[in-house]
Amino acid sequence: GLKVNSHFIFYQNPTVISFPSGPELIPPGACKSLNSSAIYANNEVNLAEVDIYGFDYDYTLALYSNTLNKMIFDKAKTFLIEHFKYPEGIAKYDYIPNFAVRGLHYDIQKGLLMKVDAFHYIQPGTVYRGLSPVPDEEVLELHGGTYHIPLTEDSGFYGKGPKVKQFMDIFSIPEMTLLAVANDFFITNDIEYDPVHLFKDISEAIGMVHLKGFMYKWVMQDLDKLIQRGEETDAVLHRLVSNGKKLFLITNSPFSFVDKGMKHMVGKNWREFFDVVIVQADKPHFFTDCIKPFRRLDDNGDLRWEKIKSLDKGQIYKQGNLFDFLRLTGWRGSKVLYFGDHLYSDLADLMLRHGWRTAAIVPELEQETKVVSTYRYALSLTWLQALTGLMEQLQIHRDQESKEVFREWQEEREEAMIKNFFNPQFGSIFRTCHNPTYFSRRLSRFSDIYMASLSCLLNYDPTYNFFPRRTPLQHEAPLWMDQLCTGCVKTSYMEEMSHIR
Ligand SMILES: [Mg+2]
């Protein structure tokens, strides 16, 4: 009978299936090209055609240390207890670094944090209530027997759905962590509460950290510790300007804050680098609103009442809207490349409505490309593909034993790409077990190119042409088996099967 498991076929009996062993298991060159300082292209971008470079500020020009997340968490936790009168017991929870990852969805009514794939399905094993995982059976029960999240409940285009919110920016990591610990407090102490109130109050408490100026104050007090890779931002700006490029800045942050940070990174003459500087822009509305006019800030930081007829170098403007910006600058279409870290607030409208080229800053790439380049990961991935190929072949056999083996392999396949290669709770921000994530799909839709940080630009000539790799569409791709070792696994496996039967 067929009492072998798939490991046995591959590893114990290499003569049956002529599958190479050792390092050759990794397709040659597949992993060596991954580099955390590379820029990846979703769409072709020729830098020679880009005359104008635009930037968001927070997490684009200024990258912040993880310490800031803990500070935001602690302050918001204090607001939750002191301002919103939540139980003192929540105070005992410390910040948990690496609990949450960007791009997760949160079910506001059920109080569940979870990872959703590109097809709106929850990834089993990635649902958390408080700090504890929710068993798959319970997740199914809670969603009427399916892992699917209907679009009506979900985030729509901008992640702000009525029932399920997607956390898309890096600032939301402390918010997700605070939600998790506060839910955990109520659950473990068996106290009845309304998760909807908790969500709203935590969202306001986090907002207070920003609105009351705490975050700005901390960063300005400790620029050295909290702002990272400032020299590299400086180098990028220098290089662009010396190549005759025009630069502009559109940020939601206030001028005093941006000014301090930019002076720290670039020097006191930083404004000479930029042709247009816009602060407190109120993105994403900046990109869709046609009404709010630009206002000029004078040297004292006071708002002027004059009508704005041009956007001049050396001046600081507040608010405004993209339609006026396009009219006043004439900077349209593919000659503009805009960099931002928020896929919705920074990039979506530019891509969908205005035809600027877009570049996403995704700091998580640094860690994720490191993992993907490891031998252990490559081995698991190769194994996953081999196993999937075997299953594809085996399913034509309808006998009981074959069906049994298929079931075993199915289980093994679910465990093959164990998520703890990455974040132990939620795995990679780019992939669920077998699909791209919701985040990934948005990233490829809204960004022409993406990179871990602005400094990656330093590795490319200013006339570089980024070509996306031509990956096969499903109908163009070889079968799983052929892809691996051009049929040798398949043929040998089929031969072996016929002997066994
Ligand atoms: Mg930002």
TrEMBL record:
Positions of transmembrane segments: none
Record key words, sorted: Hydrolase, Magnesium, Metal-binding
InterPro entries, per the entry: HAD-like_sf, HAD-SF_hydro_IG_5-nucl, HAD_sf, Pur_nucleotidase
Residues the record marks as active site: D56, D58
Binding-site positions, GMP: D58
Database matches in Gene3D superfamilies: HAD superfamily/HAD-like (3.40.50.1000)
Residues that, per the record, bind Mg(2+): D56, D341
Record-given protein name: 5'-nucleotidase domain containing 2
Organism name: Gouania willdenowi (Blunt-snouted clingfish)
